[in-house]
Design brief:
By secondary structure, the protein is mostly helical. It has 8 helices and 2 strands; from the N terminus they run ααααβαβααα. Helix 3 crosses helix 4.
Length: 179
């Protein structure tokens, strides 16, 4: 009887092991159409979303526009607000009543990626209570950098737009890939 139970357990374990191998051998649907295993997960999801949303059935069409979509993704990512420092009171200070409006020193990073030099210079000018002229100069540099990023995004979107059919352009616009 013990041998029969042992064989039954071994059979169940073997069946489970075989099913796990079968599941792990399946292809990842996110990486198949984009063909870039070294892309970050967010970029893979974006590319998969665009691939599916454009309704492409011919992979050669996708291969032709994929680099253009990746350029738009990179330009959109670069235009996002960079990591900033915001002054927020710590929960402990608020609970214990030791927080005063002018002395908040706790900082929190906004997680959007590395901060740009222009954003850092502007933040430093604000933190150090710089003169109005210094703040205006830092603000002008920040705006110029943002304008250059917007122009890069517009150029990437225009390149993509030229490669799409009118229906694909409409779909890409609804997917927020094009403005």
């Amino acid at each position: 009887m013990k041998m029969k139970n042992l064989l039954t357990i071994c059979g169940i374990a073997a069946a489970l092991a075989a099913s796990v191998v079968g599941v792990s051998a399946q292809t990842n649907p996110v990486s198949s159409p984009i063909g870039s295993d070294n892309a970050n997960p967010a970029q893979q999801r974006f590319l998969q979303h665009v691939h599916d949303g454009l309704g492409l059935t011919n992979e050669s069409d996708w291969n032709a526009i994929q680099p253009l979509v990746q350029n738009v993704y990179a330009a959109q990512r670069d235009l996002l607000p960079s990591t900033g420092v915001s002054r927020v009171p710590s929960l402990n200070r608020v609970i214990n009543g030791t927080n005063s409006v002018g002395t908040v020193r706790t900082v929190r990073r906004v997680a959007f990626g590395p901060s740009t030099p222009e954003a850092q210079a502007l933040q430093q000018a604000v933190d150090e209570n710089a003169s109005a002229d210094d703040i205006k100069a830092a603000l002008a540099a920040y705006h110029a950098a943002q304008k250059a990023k917007r122009e890069k995004l517009e150029a990437a979107q225009e390149s993509l737009r030229q490669a799409l059919t009118p229906q694909q352009e409409a779909r890409a616009t609804l997917l927020k890939v094009l403005d």
